[in-house]
Write a structure and sequence with these properties.
single chain; mainly alpha; Helix Hairpins; 0% strand; flat; binds adenosine-5'-triphosphate; lipid metabolism; transferase; transmembrane
Amino acid sequence: MPRKYIKKRLNSFGYALRGMGAAFRYEPNMKLHVLAAIEAIFLGWFFHIKPSEWCWIILAIGLVWMAEIFNTALEKLTDLVSPDYHELAGQAKDLAAGAVLMAAFTALAIGILIFWPYVAALPVVAEWLKNLS
Ligand SMILES: Nc1ncnc2c1ncn2[C@@H]1O[C@H](COP(=O)(O)OP(=O)(O)OP(=O)(O)O)[C@@H](O)[C@H]1O
């Protein structure tokens, strides 16, 4: 493979890492998503979830982070193209934010489906559920 090609690919990888780093460093919402991911990972470790369940958790985390990075990119592009108020600019930002919310709801549903059986099996929760019925 030509050296120039490899250098270009490595540069592209570096730019992508820079973009990812900027999202984690400067986006306030990203910090919330990271916190949620840490909680999910802690629960996964605590309950010793199965490898297949880890796959769903990793997928859910990746989905939300990816949506947030796309949202940030779209916000920046919108601010560049339309720094002043414009209805379409507002719609574009609302749609991008809606995509993040949809990803977050999906991740929440995955989290509930995976963790609920483990939570329900905890003696204190099982006892409480028994008293409820
Ligand atoms: N140029 C604009 N024209 C019209 N409406 C806009 C414009 N910029 C922002 N808005 C409206 O204000 C909302 C918030 O926009 P803003 O850029 O502050 O994003 P945000 O949700 O606060 O994102 P973040 O907190 O991640 O920066 C948008 O979803 C949109 O409805």
